[in-house]
Amino acid sequence: MRISDLLAQGKRFISLEFFPPKDKEAWPAFFYEVGKLSILDPLFVSVTYGAGGSTQANTLELVSRFSRDFGLNPMAHLTCVGASEEYLRSFLDGLKAAGVDNVLALRGDPPQGQADFKPENAAFQHASDLAGFIHKAYPELCIGVAGYPEKHPQAESLEQDIDYLKLKVEKGGKFAITQLFFDNDHYFRFVERCRAKGIDVPILPGVLPILNLASIKRILSLCGATLPADYLARLEAANDQGGADAVRELGVAYAREQCRDLIARGAPGVHLYTLNKAQACLDIVRGLKFD
Fold first, then answer.
1. What burial letters (b/e) apply to 203-222, b meaning 16+ CB within 10 Å?
2. Which terminus of the chain, N or C, has less C-beta within 10 A?
3. Domains of the chain from N-terminus onward
4. What pTM, to 2 d.p., does this model score?
């Protein structure tokens, strides 16, 4: 079902993002985690792939299984990496044949070993190009786009980045999912600035639980998000005193409180970056009220 139609119903929700392993031998364990999280009845599930499209070839099979085997409403990620009209039409035709109604249009990260994104096709340099193509060629598909509460690392300013988001919406984006953030005020200020620019689509907050200190520092170096100084200090103290388990406990508790605050302050729902860790996500969602 089209995510935009579900969002129009106005019900608070949880949605989930999965990062499937490249190696198919790891898929049974991955789908075991998916099955545990299906009890949350998410509004939709987002299926990503590795940097530079390294697992893009598996996406169609994955979203088909999400729908067929788990009764979940999937959204496939699609990027400009290696994009051509021929490939995009083949991929999007496959989505339609599988009954998948949703796609997230992204520029994508540069392939491993490449510092900057270098488009291979002049027609598909930006996420807005991809959104525009999908909207014109496949108007029945619901298109999601990305937003950056602390701006994209390569944007000159947040104001410029919001202008890019507006362009993606004008090209066909029906809703936006934000990059991760750890201060909810970033999200609410971002939404206010988007509304002031005339962006009226739903903006879904993306929440990432911190389960590993080294991992989150690496992620932050890539995406441009920031950690509040007091939270970082607590994480480092937890890591020094109790190791990985203590970091996980603190990270889950922080994400749970972050989700509660987002809902209490009027966010339409929460998009949870699962890290493919079902129990951590179940611990975060436990007790949250989405109605």
1. bbbbbbbbbbbeebeebbee
2. C
3. 3-285 (3.20.20.220)
4. 0.93
